[in-house]
Amino acid sequence: MIFTMLCIPKRVTMLGLSRWSEKGGSYQTLQRLYHSPLNWLTIHWIFLKAHLVDPNRAYLLVGHLLCI
Question: Whole-prediction pTM value?
Fold first, then answer.
């Protein structure tokens, strides 16, 4: 699905994504994907560990807490 989002030449809509995606990317599947809750903190951490973190280096993680 992410590959489709990056390659779609027009405005990214759910209908456009379902048309451009390969097998398994129907409109109903997209609706289920967008309605399911995601833990973004875990997703970002897994991405950082897999692609950007070098185990031989030290890192300082800084965050911002937003209270509304």
Answer: 0.41
